[in-house]
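Query form — protein 2,3-bisphosphoglycerate-dependent phosphoglycerate mutase

QUESTION: What is the three-dimensional structure of this chain?
INPUT:
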Amino acid sequence: MEHLLVLVRHGQSEWNLKNLFTGWKDPGLTEKGVAEARAAGGKLRDLKLAFDVAYTSDLSRAQNTLKLILEELGQEGLETIRDQALNERDYGDLTGMNKDEAREKFGEEQVHVWRRSFDVPPPGGESLKMTAERVLPYYRSEILPQVIAGKRVIVAAHGNSLRALVMELEGLSPDEILKRELATGAPIVYRLTDEGKVASVQDLAD
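ANSWER: The C-alpha cells for 2,3-bisphosphoglycerate-dependent phosphoglycerate mutase are given below.
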C-alpha cells in the first residue's frame, strides 16, 4: 500500500514581495506566486502523482495555491479540508510591518530572536514552538491516519506551519528546523512506512 504525503508552501504573496510580516493576514498571490503554484502542479503531474484528499489552511494564499495545483493535475473537484490549525505562525504586533522597519524599531538582534528562535514569540504572537503545538496534534489526528490508510494526501500551507510538519517527519531538532528554508511553491514528496515514518523524501525545489 502506498503512503504518500506531499507538502507545498504557497506561492509568493503580495506581502512576501513587500517584505512584510504576514502571519494570519490574508493577502493574495502575486503573478509570480500564481506561476509558482502552476509550476508546482506541473512538477507533480510530471511525476504522475494524483491525490485522494487535500488539506489547506484558512488563508486564501494557501487555498489558491492548492486550487491552481489541482487545476494543473486535472483534479479540480478533489475533496479539500480547510482548517486554521494549518495557518501560518501568528506574528502578533509585527504583522503588517516591513521587516527592515521592524529592525529599526526594535533592533536587529531582537527581531532576529523573534524570527529565528524556537520558543520566543513576538509580542502578541506565536513562536515556532507554539505554532507546532497547534499544527502537530491536527496532523496526528486528522492527516496522518488518512496517509496510513492509503490515501494520497497533499497539504498546501505556510512556511512555519510546514516547518512544524517537516520537524516531526524528519525528526529534526529545534536548531535544525530553524535553519531549514522552505521555498515558495516547491512540493516536498514524502513516502511513509506503515508506521508513518519517512521511507523517502524528494524536494522538488529548483
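ADDITIONAL NOTE: Helices lie at 14-17, 31-46, 60-73, 99-106, 108-116, 128-148, 159-170, 174-178.
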